[in-house]
Amino acid sequence: MTRVNLGAWSFWMPALISAAEATKSLRVGTNVLNNDFRHPVLVAREAATIDLLTEGYAQLELNALVQRIVVTDHPRQAAEELARRWTQLSPEEILQSPYVLIGTVDKLIEDLHARRKCWGISYYVIFEPYVDALAAVVARLAGK
Question: Mean pLDDT across the stretch 38-62?
Answer without folding.
Answer: 72
